[in-house]
Amino acid sequence: MRYAHIVGWGSYLPEQVLTNHDLAQMVDTTDEWILSRTGIRERRLAGEKETVTTMAFNAAARALAVADMHPARLDMIIVATSTSEHAFPSTASLVQDALGATRAGAFDLSAACSGFVYALSLAANAIKSDAIDTAVVIGTETLSRVVDWQDRATCILFGDGAGALVLKGSDVPGGVLASTLRSDGSGGDLLSLHNTQISSVPFIGTSYVNGHGPYIHMNGRQVFRFATSVVADAIEEVIKKAGLQLKDISLIVPHQANVRIIDHVAKKLKLPPEKFYLNLERYGNTSAASIPIALCEAVQEGRLHPDDTLVFVGFGGGLTWGAVVVKWDVTPPDVSAVKQRLRQARYVAMRLRSRARRLLRRFMAWVGGSPTPKARLKDADRRLEEGGEKR
Ligand code: ACO
Question: d(Cα 326, Cα 375) in Å, to the nearest integer?
């Protein structure tokens, strides 16, 4: 039997802070309204040079440092995000290049705020089936770039950031014990972000402002109702799958959407609120990144102990939801400062290597006189004519 253990964790949060008081200068709202309805006080916004890729890279590099794992040992990189810069290349491929994870496959996964739980479940199952031995799963978002900053119902909720976990196969029982993933696409219109470049047919609820957008569209009340109706059941279902009971769970790390949703779930499960780890007060809803960011802070605050059993639960657009049960059995290795510095130097070398490869490709094309598409068509026409065929 193979088991998928969490051996590293890392997060990255942009420095720029946007408080509720700042928001009250931008839209018709108050700190009191936002705090009482959501539990959020402030959120982080990505700077001009920060992207989902740079944040994902930083979170993954930190997680690999905790795991004391060389990136070339990675078999798989999965990035969960709804704010990828490109349809392709995937954010995961760009992170693979930046890390110098030369042996890793890489792909993005779209399951909105449930994305991290989906990615963790897939990676763990690939390790348990012995298809791969190591993986890094990342949640990364720049939601600030897709919210309408004039819409007080949505712009108060979201923030930017990234978080990552490193998984490794082992014969020792533990790690990711069970998972459950679900979807109900009939509620797709309740929470959506339309891609206009690909489809000219607007999705129900697609929102534009003065020709700009599209922006996140959300039916807040319906999403609230959906979340409070599925999250408790998902937690109970996954715990049962793992052969455990609610009393065996030390801590639940939920997607950080709204403190009222979590209070509701806690009441439904008859659990004290302290069983749920929350940090949305400081970061808002960072979608796919919220669970790994929260987990990193829980570790930092000493909330996790060896042999604790944790549940991660996500819910969001799709509609999607899912939960994972994890046996937390890690004591991070003590990595020397010299090794850390060498690691940073290696990432700089990887950036230079990547640039050099791009230049070399262009140079080879130039030397080889690689023809333009127009010249290729002309050449094809000439050859067809010579052969007496029609194109
Ligand atoms: N400041 C002041 N008033 C506001 C604001 C604001 N920022 N936003 C809305 N209001 C007003 C509305 O206009 C409305 O006024 P009206 O009664 O005069 O019409 C009133 O407040 C009540 O509006 P509701 O939308 O009913 O407010 P509600 O109590 O439902 O709270 C909220 C809104 C916070 C969005 C809530 O519905 C919610 O949290 N829903 C879940 C959203 C969520 O978690 N989304 C993300 C999950 S999935 C994912 O992560 C992508």
Answer: 58
Residue 390 has pLDDT above 60, yes or no: no
Residue 181: asked if its preceding bond is cis (omega within 30°), the reply is: no
How many residues are listed for the chain in this entry?
A: 391
Q: Considering only CA atoms, which residue is closest to atom 49 of ligand 1?
A: 316
**φ, ψ at 370 (rounded to 5°):** -50, 120
What's this model's pTM, rounded to 2 decimal places? 0.91
- The pLDDT tens digits for 45-90 are 999 999 999 999 999 999 999 999 999 999 999 999 999 999 999 9
Q: For residue 192, what is the enclosing H or E element?
A: strand 191-192
Least Cα distance to 105 among 79, 69, 87, 124 occurs for 79
- Which of these is catalytic: 20, 258, 279, 285? 285
Instruction: Report the amino acid identity of residue 48.
Output: E
Q: Which 3 state secondary structure label does DSSP give 182? A: strand
d(CA 109, CA 363): 34
Residues 306, 331 contacting (CB under 8 angstroms): yes
Q: Which residues contact 258 (CB under 8 A, 6 or more apart)?
A: 37, 38, 39, 157, 224, 227, 280, 285
CA of 271 to the centre of ligand 1 (A): 26
Write the secondary structure of 203-253 as one string of H (helix), E (strand) and C (coil): CCCCEEECCEEEECEECHHHHHHHHHHHHHHHHHHHHHHCCCCHHHCCEEE
Q: Which two tokens stand for residue 66?
A: 């905790």
d(CA 3, CA 158): 35
CA 247/CA 254 separation, integer angstroms: 17
Q: Based on the residue annotation, tell me whether 296 is a catalytic residue of this protein.
A: no
